[in-house]
Design a protein that fits this description.
Layout (H helix, E strand, L loop, with lengths): L1 E5 L3 H14 L4 E5 L2 H10 L4 E5 L7 H9 L7 E5 L11 H4 L6 H7 L4
Amino acid sequence: MQVMLIDSDREELLKLQRTVLNADPSAQLIAFSDPLSAVQYGRSRPPDVLITSDDLSRLTGYDVIRLLRRSMKRGSRAAMLLHGSDPGPGSGPPDYIPCIGTPDLTEIICGTG
């Protein structure tokens, strides 16, 4: 499964990479800190799963999802990490990745199973 990760904050991107790999060590990660590069790459090589921050440079996470959604394969999933003034418990990717519908990631990230 190919998972595209996008976050302008490199530290958050590294946390997100670790979280996804802990959930599914076989995931093929493609990580971007620049959303425009991610969109360009994703249009020619659509990911199975797209996880993006809402707070990006030059584009928002909503923009990225909107721009890539048409290119993504049927059954692909998109999730957005929402950052706010009160991030809540843990304040890291495991707390904010919504259940994205892929069985191997959902169990660990969403606490199901």
